[in-house]
Structure prediction request, 464 residues.
Amino acid sequence: MSVTTSAPTDSAAHRLKELCGDIVHLPGDPSYDAVRMPWNVAVDQRPAAVAVPASADQVAAVVRHCAVLGLRVAPQSTGHAAAALVQHDLDDVVVLRTGELRGVTVDAERRVARVGGGTLWQEVVEAAAPHGLAALHGSSPDVAVAGYALGGGIGWYARKLGLATNSITAVELVTADGEQLRATTEENAELFWAVRGGGGSFGVVTALELRLFPIADAYAGMMLWDLQHAEKVVRHWAAWSATAPEEVTTALRVMRFPPMPELPEFLRGRQLVVVDGAVLGDDERGAELVAGLRALEPEMDTFARTPAAALSRLHMDPEGPTPSVGGSACFDALTDGAVDAFLAAVGPGVQTSLMIAELRQLGGALGRPAPDGGALSMVPAAYLGFFVAIAATPEMAQQGMVDVARTTTALEPWSNGKSFLNFAEGPADVAAAYEEGAWARLRAVRSAVDPREVFLANHVVPGE
Ligand SMILES: Cc1cc2nc3c(=O)[nH]c(=O)nc-3n(C[C@H](O)[C@H](O)[C@H](O)COP(=O)(O)OP(=O)(O)OC[C@H]3O[C@@H](n4cnc5c(N)ncnc54)[C@H](O)[C@@H]3O)c2cc1C
Prediction:
């Protein structure tokens, strides 16, 4: 090939299009604006090019040519985490969108699903359910398996069954030199260790295999109260969740809804406190575990036997393009002081643009390293805070960021300083997401498999 790595970026991107054809979209192409649009439409990502390959071979060709042309490659499935990606300069970056690499095959006997590198969780949920099986999906149906599971993955079974990344049994990926590899605990084991929790710094994942679990249904649902009852609900939940057994996983959210006509009446224009989650147990056990919350007389209570397939929509996460800004923090405990600070930041009577101030209950299996796990096999925190504002205009985004920062700052005295990168919506202390030894090992793997740092992840693991 005659092109050198010193070619200016725009001519390198043009050359990439010449080499790869119509799967590459350049600034100025009529298609560019549509393909560069991430799920989080508040994020204005403008890379040197967007590639939308339809096969692993096409992914390999794009990566190989980018490496030679001096372009970097940012794998992206949906762009739920695009806000973290755009903290980096994208002038020499090709965003490689995996949305065409979809599909799910379930091997019910082995309890394994093979999924394409751009597959959404809802597709896996629907394919597994007819076999009485469930995967470790999260709260959103249209988050992609790849970004979620490579970054950790906390779902409704997490306190019992751990992070989703521990359920990955194999990945197929394209490395920085365009090679297509399979990685398991036996084959390319060091790379397999790194991608499980290390994220998108090591290659483009074109397919994954995931363990499925024999879960047909759960005792699951939500309870909601008007925000005026927040004090008693938050205090009770904080005390109860600290010692609750690991078959239950819940989240508590303070939610503020605009008076939008498309919202159901129980949400429209309301300020609420909501607890939702799932119990892996029979109805009697489930009712026993949520009895204390129920005694607080929620105005709505849907906890009941629920098909596993319905759990992907339990949290009412927005589907389709959504403009948002957010931030997160990890806590070892929710002390009385932390609850006071939470209520002072988002409780009744407070003016805030945050639509969601969420506390997720961790611990249980999430707090223990998984045998044979990867770079991140547990979360070193008992609670995770996630704070989100809708950002339909630049002004809303700005105000949202102010309120996200105000809330995380108010809770900072109780934060343990760790990061959980799936919920880090902007620049984050990436090293703080890992044990020290794991961070050094991740950096060594990066140097070994991608010495020229061709790949750009939302949260970068740099080489040594
Ligand atoms: C509404 C909402 C609900 C959420 N709920 C949960 C939840 O319940 N639990 C939880 O743990 N997280 C949750 N998250 C966080 C979510 O897991 C992260 O945003 C995750 O990164 C999204 O993955 P994605 O592939 O859809 O996003 P993308 O933005 O496409 O990808 C994020 C990063 O993952 C890497 N990546 C993605 N695809 C590939 C690939 N094929 N090959 C290599 N690298 C790749 C890249 O580094 C990329 O920058 C939620 C986020 C939102 C916005």
Observations:
- The chain has three domains: 9-97, 104-214+433-449, 218-423.
- The CA atoms of residues 75 and 267 lie 36 Å apart.
- The mean pLDDT is 96.
- The radius of gyration is 22 Å.
